Amino acid sequence: MTTIYEAAGGIEVLERLAEATHQRCLADELLNHPFSHADNQPDHTERLAAYWAEALGGPPTYSQQMGSESHVQRLHAGESAYMEEASPRFVACVVESFDEAGVPDDPRLRKALTEYVTWAAMGPFRAWPSSSDDVPADLAMPRWGWDGPLS
Ligand code: HEM
User: Which InterPro entries match (predicted)?
Assistant: First the structure.
């Protein structure tokens, strides 16, 4: 069966989606701050797209060459009150970027992408509110299919 990654148009479309999302985050007064640190990764867009690709049935480039799920969760952990407020806004930045990024106008695809990002932002990415020290070292990369989480 076609994966969500393939239906979306592969890595090119996910990179455009990550870039458009990033620009929206920078333009948002609440989300701007964490994305504006001087030591942020210059290739953030590429890394975010690779992570999404792997979760959505694409190649395992993120986990083989860039980082692990534990690394990603540690980056986002320990920000309880902030993440409560910021998570729904991050999801909105992704969804509002669909047209600009050229995500196919297929309701089933857009619904699956929206559900994946919502699930991640409201669940795993808020699971360690107190400290990055609480994040286990061996978290599996999440996988998302047409009917929801695969692992
Ligand atoms: C409130 C919501 C979120 C905020 C404020 C946030 C913030 C950030 C920040 C500041 C970075 C570091 C950027 C850099 O180094 O340039 C980052 C990296 C990243 N974020 Fe988020 N994020 C949020 C939600 C999410 C969600 C929902 C996902 C996945 C579905 C995600 C996936 C990633 C990935 C894969 C990276 C790159 C990790 C790496 O450098 O290897 N983030 N995020």
Answer: Globin-like_sf (IPR009050), Globin/Proto (IPR012292), Hemoglobin_trunc (IPR001486)
Domain 4-149 has CATH 1.10.490.10: yes
- 12-33 confidence digits (pLDDT tens): 999 999 999 999 999 999 999 9
Task: Report how far ligand 1's centroid is from the alpha carbon of 122 (Å).
Answer: 13
Q: Is 22 annotated as a binding residue?
A: no
Can you tell me whether residue 39 is helix, strand or coil? Answer: coil
Q: What dihedral angle (degrees, nearest 10) is formed by the CA atoms of 69, 28, 123, 133?
A: 50
Other residues' Cβ atoms within 10 Å of the Cβ of residue 88? 12
